[in-house]
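Cont'd.
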Amino acid sequence: MIKLKLRKRTREVDETSRTNNSLGLMFWAAVSFLAVLTFCAIFADILPFKNPTQTFKGFNKNGPSGSFLLGNDGVGRDILSRVVYGAQTSLVIAVVGTSIALIIGGSIGLAAGYYRGKVDRLLTIMLNTTLIIPPLILFISLILFLDPAAERRMFILIFTFALLSIAPIGRVVRANTMAWSEREFVLAAQTIGARNGRVMFREILPNVAPSLISYSLIVMATLIIVEGAVAFLGLSVPSPTPTWGDMINKGRPHLDVAPHITLMPALSMFLTVLSLNFIGDKLQEKFESKAAIL
Amino acid sequence: MAGSGNLHLREQEKPLLRVEDLVVNFLSAGGETVQAVSGFSIDVLEGETLGLVGESGCGKSTTARAIIQSPKPTAGSIQLDGVELTELDDEEMRRTRPILQMIFQDPISSLNPRRTIRDVVAEPLYVWWEEETGRLAIASWFEKTGNLFQKISSKFSRPARILAPLAWLSLIFWLVSEASDERSLETWLSWLKTPAQFIGFPVLFILAAMAAALSVVGAVWLVLAVILPFGVISGKFGSVTNTVGLTGLFTSLFAVVFLFFRTWSSLGGVAHWLSSGILLLAVGFLAVWSLLACREPSRAGSSALAVLVFMLFAIQVFYIVGLDGNTKLAVFSLSAAVDGILYWLIARRYKLARAQMRQRAEPEVKRVLEAVGMEVEGSLERKPHEFSGGQAQRISIARALILNPKVVICDEPVSALDVSVQAQILNLLEDMKAAYGLTLVFIAHDLAVVKNISDRVAVMYLGKICEVGPPELLYSAPQHPYTRLLIDAIPRPDPEFDQRNAVRIEGELPSPLAPPSGCRFRTRCPNVQAKCSTEEPQMKEVASGHYVACHYPADSELNQ
Ligand code: SF4
C-alpha cells in the first residue's frame, strides 16, 4: 500500500517538473515581472509612490538616489512613480484594446472559419477592409476629426487600437478554426445534434484558444509599442497624465546630460514588451508541441 | 460497371434507410464540378448490415456524409424510417440526428483532445438534456407572458393600434431631441432635427419634452412603447415567439442607438448616467433576450444572463470612465467587489448545474463504456490521447450508442487500426448490433473486412454501384469484373499461394472531374468491349438478390 502511494507521488513530481522545465526559468521571470508591474499599476494610488505630477524643486535631472529610486525628470518629478502611472495608461490601452479585438475578431474568425463559403467571404472582406487603411493616417484623422481637444483621447486610442487589431486576430482565429473544423470530432458533434454555436464554442474554441491567447499577448505587446510611438508624436493621452511614450519624448532634449530620463521609461517598455512576446512565444511552442503529439 | 438503375431496390419490403438516385457534386478548387457520387441507390432493412466497399476516392465516404446531410447532397432522396431527410430544414434534421449516428475512420481525431472521456461520451446527453430543461422552464414563462400580452392586445387592440406608432414616433423624437442638444452632434443631426420637429406635432412634442425632462418618465414611456406594439403584433401574428422576436429586434436596435448617444454625449453627469444606465440595462436585457428567445427558446435563459452581465459591465466601465480622482477609485473598487461576488455566484450556479448533469449522466456513461468493453475505473477523467487507437474507437462507439440510435454508419471504422485490433472492433460492432438492435452501414475499402459481418454487400466504383448481393453469392461467384479483381486482391492465408501473383488492378482511378463515358470502369476493365464506352450498363439480376451493372458479367455467354 505504502509502496503504491510512493510510486504515485514520484510520478506526479516528475510530471510537474517536466512542465516547469519545458517553460523554463525565463518564462517565470517574465511572468513575475508583468505581475509586479500590473500589481503596482493597479494599486498605485494605495502603494507608497510619490505623486507623479508633483515637481520637486532642486531635483531636476537628478540621477537615481535613495529617495528617488529611478531619479527625477527634467522638471524634478519622480520617474519611478511616473513609470508606474505610465504603466497604468499603457496596460489599460493594451489590455482593453486587445480584449475588444479579441471578442470581435475572435467571433468573426470563428464564424468565418466554421461556416466557410459565403459567410467566410463576407467576413474576410470585412477584415481586409480594416487592413487597407494605413494605421497612422487613420489614427491621426480620427483624432483630428473627433477629438481635437484631447478630452476623450483614451477612448479614441482604445477604439483605434482595437479596430487595427481585429483583422490580425480574426485571421489567426479563422485559419485555426478551419484547421480544427476538419477534425472528425467536429462532424461527430454535429452528428449528435449539437447546434452550430455549441460546436463552435464547446468543441472548436477550446482548441483554438491556446494559440489565440499567445497571439493576443503579442498583439498586446505591439499595442504598447504603438502607444509609445503615438505618444512620441504627441497624440496620446495629453500631458500631465504620464505615459511611457510621452516620458521618452520629454526626456529627449536632456539625453546628453541626463540619459536616465529617457532610459527608465524606455527600459520598462522594453521589458514589458519583451516579457509579453516571450510568454506568447513560449506558450505557442508548448501548445504546438502538445498538438503535435495528438 | 458503374451502372444506373434501381432494380436492386426492394420495393416490396419497407426499408429503414432508403437512398435513391443520390447525386453529390461539389466544386473543386479550380471551379470544376467533381462528380463524387452519381446516381447511387441502396436500401437497408431494419436489423440488416450493409457492407459498402470501394477504393479510396470512389465516393463511399461522401455517400456516408450525404446520408447524414452534412453536407446536403446535390440531388436524390434519402429516407430514414419513412422520413425524407433531404426535405428537412436544419432544425428538423438536428432533431432527427440522434437516431442516425456515425463512427469515424480516425478514432483519435474523432474525439476532442481537450475534453475528458466522461464528457466526450456524455456530450450527446448534455446536448439534449440542456435543451429539454431549458425549454421546460422557458416555455411556461412564455405561455404566461404570451397570454398576458394577448389579453392586453385584445382589450386595447384599437387604441393600441393608434397609440403604438405614436409611442414609437415620440420615442424616436425624444431620442433625437435629447441627443441633438449635444454640441458634437449638433451638425450631424441638424438635418434630422428639423423634420423631427415637423413630424413631431405639438402633442408629440409635449410628450417628448416630458420624457426628456424626466428620465423616469422616459423609462415608463419606453415600456409603453415596447408593450403596445407587442400587443398589436401579437394579435396579428398569433405566434408568441415571432412577436417577441420582432419586438426584440426593434428594441435592440433602439438600445444600440441609445448606447451610442449616451456614451457619446454625457461622459459627465452622474445622475444622468445612472438613470440611463438602468434604463439601458432594462431595454438591452429585454431586447436581446427576446431576440434570442425567438430563435432559440431553450437558450434564452443563459443568453439573457450573459447579456445582463455584459451590460452591467459595459455600464460600469462607461460610468467609471466619466468620474474623476478619488471617486473613481472608490466606485471602481466597489463595483469590482460587486462584480466579483456576482460572477462568483453565477460561476457557482453553472458549476453546480454542470456537476448535477455529470452526475445524472454517470450511470449511462458507465453503462455504454462497459458495453463496449472499456475499463471504466480510472478512464473517465482521462483525455483521448491517453488511449490507444482501438480504445479510442471503442469510446467513439460508446458515444454513438448512448443516444440509442437506429442506424449507425461506420465510415471505415477499422482501417486506421492495427490488424490485431481490427477483429476486436468488428466483433464489438457485431455484438453491439445484436444488443442494441442496430442497423449498420459498414464502409470499407477492403472486401475481406465486410465479408463476415454483412448481410448484403455493395461494391462501389467512381460514384456508382457495380454489384450488390448477399456475401455468399458475391464472394463465391462475383459477376462484375471489378468485384472479381477486388476479391483476387484479398491476401490469402495460403502458404502455397504466392502473394506476388495476386491480381493488381491496372491503372489509376479516373478523375471524377470527367468520368469515362458509358461504363465508368471501362478504362481499367479486362473485359472491355466497344459497347462499354457508348452505353451505360444498367442493374440486372443475375441470381436471387444478386444484381450487377455490367454488359458482360462473368456468367454471360461471352465469357464462357
Ligand atoms: S465489361 Fe464493360 S460494362 Fe462490364 S465492367 Fe467492363 S467495361 Fe464495364
